[in-house]
Each structure stands twice: as structure tokens, then as C-alpha cells.
Amino acid sequence: MKICIAGKNNIAVSVCSYLLKKYPDIPILVVKNRTDNGTDSFQRSFWKFANDNNLPMKELEDVYSIPDLIFLSLEFDRIIYPERFSSSKLFNIHFSLLPAYKGMYTSALPILHAEERSGVTLHKIDSGIDTGDILCQKAIMLSPSETAKSLYKKYIQVGTDLVVENIDSILNDTYTTVPQSSEHSLYFSKSSLNYSDLELDLNVTAFQLSSQIRAFNFRDYQLPKLYGYSVVGACITNDRSTLRPGRILEDDCNYICLSTIDYNIRVYKDRLYDLLECCKLNDLYGLKLIPQLDYYLFESEQTHGWTLLMVAAYNNSIDVCRYLIEQGADVNARNFNGTTVLMYAKDAVLRTENYNLIDLFLENGANPLLEDYSGKNLFDYLKIQSMVLLQYINKKWLNF
């Protein structure tokens, strides 16, 4: 038996990592996506992970003839033709609750269509597009503030869990399936949306405009634009619109207020980099003046993957750190290299010799044992940098 994982991003990396640990005797083959350049970004590179773990890289055609193959398609970028395989154990993770939303743009379309839920489906691969029999699926409720990116991150986690929970039955050939229903079956092709020429339709209701903004909000690829500004969210007012849709009623540093078919709406401009500067300078007053903080708490800049809390921690901005944590910031977030918030706080403490920052993070659940993508945790770095701080953190952490 051999397992082939074809795909990309965190889901492929996480599933592969799990299989390597649980089934060390089963050979794993890797087929990477054509767009994987071997560099970690907001998602990890499956190609890089495979190289780091000395996994054999294959072309798709190389695995066709393997008779006892288990093939897992995890965000793979090519159509699979089952008749070309010697094995019939071909499985795919699709980011929707099949039979709905077959095809493309499953992070945007459910939001655009005002769905209350989406989900992830593990299914067998047949000759159709996302039409195979279903092994298992899980629903995901969409929040009123759901964006394409936040939904995608949920897909990744739920999809990983589905594979991990069902891999034993796949390996042992004890899984069961059910055919997809024709009812509520939807398919969307690549031409359904044109991201190369993405424009907000302003001749709509306020709710529809808000849905568009959230559906196209995926910072790592694009942010929607309104009158030349990148925008990240919206708030529908109680004021009925009396002017034609799209008419600007107010324009300041934080938002544009405009009319729609029914209600006036405030559309918020992107101010991530202003917030990052506040975090750098410990400017809590300035940070509080910028709206939509709940959204920004889980965003990061695109060069290094720095979150607001990481920047505040590295710069010893303890007032801002405390406030961000109170608002729900993730104290165990990682950047594009897997560097944790606590690792940034460590650097600040080594510079200032003020341990209050470390205390704040440990008190709020920061985990010093989390490893970055090189396999090192906070203690590994401190063994080289400062045994005094290592002993302090270890003693403090054990008391929580």
C-alpha cells in the first residue's frame, strides 16, 4: 500500500504530517500543485514540507499505475480522471456541503448568496466534477461578519479533521458512502466570477453590498475597492437612502458612507498598516480610534505574516498587547515561518529585561512549547540566548 497526497497549503501539510507520525511504515508520495513555489506564506508550502521531510515527489502520471494506491486530493489543481488509475481508492476534500456549490469559488459564493452555512465534504472521486459518493461531511455556520478568508481558514481546519477522522476506515477499506442527491445540486465554473476585473456592484441593497465586500475580502489575494480605496467591511445604518445608489454621503479617514437601493451604508477603508504602526508605538489611544478592530485581530501583513499582537509584542508595547488580548487576539498565532507571538515577546524581554510582557502572555495562555516550522520551540531558542529567562518562563508556565 502507498498513499499519494496531491495538493497544497496547510491541509496537505497537516494531513501529511499526521500520516507520517501515525503510519510511519506506509510510503507517502507527493504530487504538488503547479502554483506551489516552495515558499511558505499565509499557507505553508506543501512542496517545501515534502522536501524538508525527504518525501518522493511525483508527477501525476507517475502514480496512475500503482495498484494499491490510496490517492488523496487536498486542494489539488488538476482534474482527476479515475479511468487512468489502477486503483479505485481516490478521494477528494471539497470545500462545500455537497451537492451544493460544486466547482469554483466556494469561499466567496456562499457569502455572496447570503447562505447561512457551508461546509466540507470528503467524497470519492468519479468522472464528474465534485459528483462522487460522499463518505462524510461537516457543516460550518457562517457568521454575519464572515469573509472569504475567514471561511477558507475554517475550511482548512474542518477539512483536515475530516481526513484525520476517516483515514483509518479508508486504509482498512471499511468506509461507507452515500450517493449525492440531485436536489439542491449547484455547480459554478471558473467563469462564475472574474477576479481579474473585480468591481463592486453599487446598484444593490445595503445588505447585498455588504455581502459583496465580505465575499471578496481575502487580503492575501485581493481586497475589494470602492472609489479607489481598499475596503474591508461595512455597517448598514438605520437611515433610508433617498439618493441614487452609489452616491457618496460622507468620506473620512475611516469610511465612506453612501446610498444604496434601500439603506445608507458605511464602508470601512483598510487601515491595517495604521494599526500596525499604533502597535509599534504602543499608541493605544490611536488604535482605539480605528474601527473594525475585531476584523483586524486575525489579519496579518503580507510580507512576514505579522499580526497586530506580534508587532506589539516585539516592540514591548504592553498596553496595546493587554488591550488586544482583552479583545480576543490569538496569543498563540504564528507568522509565515511559524514564529509564535511568545517568541516575539521573548525578543522584547531580552532587549528590555522587563519580564512583565512575558507574564502577560503566559497568564493568557501562550504556549512556550509550540514549535515554529523549523521544529524549534521557545525553550530551544532560549537555551542559546538566555538560560535565566528560560528558567523564569519554565517556572512561571508550570504554575499556570
UniProtKB/TrEMBL annotation:
The lineage of its organism: Bacteria, Pseudomonadati, Bacteroidota, Bacteroidia, Bacteroidales. Pfam families: Ank_2, Formyl_trans_N. GO terms for cellular component: cytosol. Keywords: ANK repeat. GO terms for molecular function: methionyl-tRNA formyltransferase activity. ANK repeats lie at residues 304-336. The keyword Phosphoprotein does not apply. This is Formyl transferase N-terminal domain-containing protein. It comes from the Bacteria. The keyword Kinase does not apply. Gene3D superfamilies: 3.40.50.12230, Ankyrin repeat-containing domain.
